[in-house]
Amino acid sequence: MKLIYHDLLGQVLCLPACIQQRAPTARLQAHCHVGDRSFAVCDKRQIRKQERNGKPMRAGTTPNPIIEIEAVTKVYQMGEIEVQALRGVSLTVQEGEYVAVIGASGSGKSTLMNIIGLLDRPTSGAYRIRGAEVSRLSKNELADLRNREIGFVFQRFNLLARTSAQRQVELPLFYAGITGRRAKTLALAALDRVGLQDRAHHRPDELSGGQQQRVAIARALVNQPHLLLADEPTGALDSKTGQEVLALFDELHQQGLTLLVVTHDPNVARRAERIITISDGAIVEDRRVERSDSAGSAPPTGAPSHHAADAVAPPAIPESARL
Known about the structure:
This protein is α/β, with parallel strands linked by helices and 323 residues long. Helices cover 32% and strands 23% of the residues. The radius of gyration is 19 Å and the shape is globular.
């Protein structure tokens, strides 16, 4: 019998066939691509060498395009009227980049985010994730790819009201077929990565807004995605808490994670190393941010600083959590 579930975004998810058929564990592990992709298939000495030289390196990889978009359009049909949300957008995001997409309401930035996040399909054009063309994938294949490759952080957190932080973070693992003790170990490691392991059993109503967003970030990171996609991540937070979340993004970027943040706030965009401005469905500017001009090294004037005590240490994944 086919097992089908729905994720928080209403996307239909099928558990992998190897789980439905109760295939051997080795086959399940090969399908899930969690530990072996990020930690086992690598030369750890090379990674340590790169880190000592101040050049974080993702395990087992060299810098390659994460996102390749070519001449993408998106047209919505509103009765007899066609609304062109995207007009021939082309861009490439390399592995390890920190990119901000900025634009006013109605500029097309949310449509672009939905396409990058595999939540919508382009009307025309090509879109590749790590070299794989996604246009011909089924809904279930898109959901599986999204769960493996992309971590989402939303403005409103999207947490389940009566569920502990640990269980919230375990949810993507369940979709990947990882349950039980191993799921718990990975979830606690992800919470520890964002400084919240001591809040693992707290429900959302027992957490502050900033802590809830950190739980959402831990949930986005637990499957070790290649891309973290954040939509207005500080929009529902006060200025101090927003700065703390942005400082966490800085930490994740320094650890080698690829980040793409969609925002309308120039102060948030300046934390990135590259800013893409979109207007009327087209990219009007794509520029690098000089570190002296970037807010990544210091908060904007008048904004609270991110205290050293709140800094997030590089992730320590327990040996038992690795494949």
